[in-house]
Write a structure and sequence with these properties.
3 helices; about 60 residues; mainly alpha
Length: about 60
Amino acid sequence: MISSINLNHLPIQDLVVSGLIIFIMSTIIANIYNPLLGVLYAFGNIFTLTFLSWLYRETWSDPSK
């Protein structure tokens, strides 16, 4: 298996909490305003978190930092 991230030290709890927050907020936005806005909110957050993941790449690969 080819993996660029050390999955043994990946903060799974943080990823699950972030995913739940994105899902809940996009559902609320979709119910209040428009389903398209909820989908755009969810994909916008996922894209932003993916784009900014370089901030945490060092701490994921070396947990002593």
